[in-house]
Amino acid sequence: MLRKLATQHEPRLRVIARAAKESLLHIKNFQAVRALPVPVPVPTARQAKPGLPKRTVFDASSTEALPGKLVRKEKGPATGDAAADEAYDGLGETHALYAGAFSRNSIDGAGLKLDATVHYGQLYDNAFWNGSQMVFGDGDGEIFQRFTKSLSVIGHELAHGVTQYTAALAYRNQAGALNESMSDVFGALVEQYAKKQSAAEASWLIGEGLFTDAVQGTALRSMKAPGSAYDDDVLGKDPQPDSMDKYVRTTADNGGVHINSGIPNRAFSLVALELGGNAWEAPGQIWYNTLTSGSLPATCTFGRFAKATMASAEELFGAGSNEHDAVHKAWETVKVKL
Length: 338
Fold this sequence. Notes:
By secondary structure, the protein is of the alpha/beta class. It has helices at residues 2-6, 14-34, 82-102, 151-165, 173-195, 253-256, 262-275, 282-292, 302-317, 322-333; strands spanning 55-59, 69-73, 114-118, 127-129, 134-136, 205-206, 221-222, 231-232, 236-237.
């Protein structure tokens, strides 16, 4: 999406193109670090019971200096700055999902502090987890609004931290697409858990509300219908495939990690919609158990991951269960070989 923006030459889009180029340069450097060989995660001491969140929000004041000026601490009053208060609330909602649904004590499972910096850079079109804290840009105002507006994006980025502390999936090719998909899954679950939405009630959109009114689109991605999130004159059409027969082979984006994640994303939404009820219950438990089981190699393929979810479904619910059958059916639907 940013690559598309960076190539715009119309006078009205020059500022957006420049902002996209600067964001891409930063992302390229950041993804290069993510794509390095990942060490086996060091087990962290687990607390028997999740504790309360420990949130801190900083303001970079349009610079790229981290963490920035402290503006809000845990239990402190609202600042009146929408970005700072949305970040604070989003950190809390993410902590609540992991604690309430999975008995996980913060991102690392051992009570990690949740730090975030808002107002990062100038016209910065992104949000990211840098390995130790969250960082949010304000968007360019023409295509993107501030990135704290989307709870699913906050949950998505923090889920990269959970993956970092568990499966440590490599950030390239199918493993990288799974890395991105796990973040979409848990980002969606953060939003659904906070809104108390069932799988049927949920939008299954990632980044809903980030686009300005000038964009013909609803979100960054659709888990339920990959490829349908946007179709815009400037951004182009959402390139995500919804099954393996449309898998995109590319050297861009570390092998298409943000594109091909649509395939496992759809598989999860199919399981959740097939089973009904709340997606953070049976479907979320299966995916969470798979992520944290220690059975996934860093270079995991879609097929290997699909088999691991089948094993988790059998372990948790039994071989002949509706849950096991729903997982099997979902992977068959998206044409991932088991």
